[in-house]
Hints:
heterodimer; A: 491 residues; alpha+beta; Proliferating Cell Nuclear Antigen; 5-stranded antiparallel β-sheet; 15 helices; 22 strands; globular; B: 320 residues; DNA Polymerase III, Chain A, domain 2; 2 domains; 14-stranded antiparallel β-sheet; 8 helices; 18 strands; elongated; Rad9/Ddc1 (chain A); DNA damage checkpoint protein (chain A); DNA_clamp_sf (chain A); HUS1/Mec3 (chain B); HUS1 (chain B)
Amino acid sequence: xxxxxxxxxxxxxxxxxxxxxxxxxxxxxxxxxxxxxxxxxxxxxxxxxxxxxxxxxxxxxxxxxxxxxxxxxxxxxxxxxxxxxxxxxxxxxxxxxxxxxxxxxxxxxxxxxxxxxxxxxxxxxxxxxxxxxxxxxxxxxxxxxxxxxxxxxxxxxxxxxxxxxxxxxxxxxxxxxxxxxxxxxxxxxxxxxxxxxxxxxxxxxxxxxxxxxxxxxxxxxxxxxxxxxxxxxxxxxxxxxxxxxxxxxxxxxxxxxxxxxxxxxxxxxxxxxxxxxxxxxxxxxxxxxxxxxxxxxxxxxxxxxxxxxxxxxxxxxxxxxxxxxxxxxxxxxxxxxxxxxxxxxxxxxxxxxxxxxxxxxxxxxxxxxxxxxxxxxxxxxxxxxxxxxxxxxxxxxxxxxxxxxxxxxxxxxxxxxxxxxxxxxxxxxxxxxxxxxxxxxxxxxxxxxxxxxxxxxxxxxxxxxxxxxxxxxxxxxxxxxxxxxxxxxxx
Amino acid sequence: xxxxxxxxxxxxxxxxxxxxxxxxxxxxxxxxxxxxxxxxxxxxxxxxxxxxxxxxxxxxxxxxxxxxxxxxxxxxxxxxxxxxxxxxxxxxxxxxxxxxxxxxxxxxxxxxxxxxxxxxxxxxxxxxxxxxxxxxxxxxxxxxxxxxxxxxxxxxxxxxxxxxxxxxxxxxxxxxxxxxxxxxxxxxxxxxxxxxxxxxxxxxxxxxxxxxxxxxxxxxxxxxxxxxxxxxxxxxxxxxxxxxxxxxxxxxxxxxxxxxxxxxxxxxxxxxxxxxxxxxxxxxxxxxxxxxxxxxxxxxxxxxxxxxxxxxxxxxxxxx
Lengths: 491, 320
């Protein structure tokens, strides 16, 4: 295995599954970026107007192993091997968010023992194992669920907005309030927007942040449509206003005479999404809060940051109060008046605009490399359907229970990690599948001690004629019904 | 046109609105300096469906008010009842010291300064401020789009129905809501669309509901307890005199009174009054020649008065 990450804390399970659900509400695809010390998931919506990224530091996981040696070139980007650098080596890919949401929606975090993510990205891995994200979940009832989904390697596509806003904020003089590109920053108790959203009717579509006269107001409304002097569409507009001095922190309070005036509009939907998500990160900071409703309502330092510039520029919401996780939601904003928007956009520097825009994922074409004959690899019957299948779960009987914990050396159970030496076994892939009663298995590799060897026997054949493959989804996949037939065809 | 109100307690208004919010999506608010009337009628054909008229003394609802218009100082607004109710609930939860209500001609969306003064659209702004537990003062503003009703067409469909020859007046006990629950079972179970209400002043008063399908079944559900029957001739049917009549327990039988009455109404229309009857402190049923009316008082005070009008389907002459 070249990538393994295990989550086995209850509150982290909840954070993880809520993160997945939140991202899946934004886009059909979730991008994963794996570096040596962080694991980030992100999503961009179809119109490239909202972007959400959740960065899990390696400390979020109970176990986190990344080994880039001998990695497949697609999706891998070499960087500086510096812990603090933003430009570390990374491996990036996208996964269908619906599949992930299906897996994590139904999961009750309190019943889990661990969730384990694994990828084999080695260039010498068998074709059937490539471009697959494996998820193994063990529940308290000792059921092990294994999911596998194909992914598509993508370019990492760095997001510049976060860094550039923060850098600009840091660089700009603290006493200048009138620069056209001034970064405005504020820190707010999440309770205020949360209570605000509870009052906004669900049909409201737009959201406005309005700063004037030393006050900041949040409005949820829908643009009105009037026909024959009657409203066709205009639900209630809800506004909450607080004084800028009541914010936890901000750089909006002017020392001069002119108070800052700003009005920024954007869609309410993803802001809602962000607030719903951070709710789980703040209230689950201490596990006690999670179960005691009285604690939930007590004030706590549940603040998040907002960075914004002008209407038309992106606004950034960031929550970073958990040590392991950082949540960044970016939303392209607009002005109130449709007529002004066009005029404004003309003036905007093109290059600036590009760096401030959101980009969708760039899928990396998988090169026409020598690809092993997948038929031979089917010696270990792979569950490589392109979509996540229904859980391959079974309640282990007393005899197989031992197996399921002991045998899957690739799927390391956290409790065994400390005292087990996985030196050679780390190369073993999917050995758990070998347990399935297959006559072939027994005859061919009875012990399956070194499946890497088994793979080389059949799959690592560089001489084989290259096979064109444009889309990994089309990769030869064996459904469950094929498993019995495939091995027979070889012998 | 000017409408400015301030109130501390919205309990009466909130309860009343919650009772009628299920009937229709929109209600009409009629503000006059002395009275607020919340009217729920069918827009197209007011007489074919039940109407509800809720009347409040403005002085008991609002602490401060300013109601002005060219039309005899009365203002008529059509408003989404759920949004209004939701806002009142938010205010209730917020633990604030005062709710301000104002009629604004301004557009409720973000664009500033776009006054739509020519149309009939405006918004009713409700605002209050409270202090959250981080000691921040938070101002809340809710702008609910409303339609101002002015012309005669709007007015004509907003005529409070009168009574057609009141035949019988009965005070329904508070437990009467169980009758609605019983009838509800029949509404679900069969094709009952109509119910005949039969009332008599004989013995201790009789009130029965007849569900009938020709040739198949006939069910009569009647109230066994004592019913307080009042003299129709002696009592005026407006809210105040009804209230007096209840307090006086005037149940002397006048010789001119009709002994028995019968009216057929849609079961659905009758059942919709269930929540009102279940909540109100005092409920009086008036059976008239062509319609029947539930006149309800929310509580002991004179604050709120809910009148539910149901039109009869067939007119039958009183039996003997």
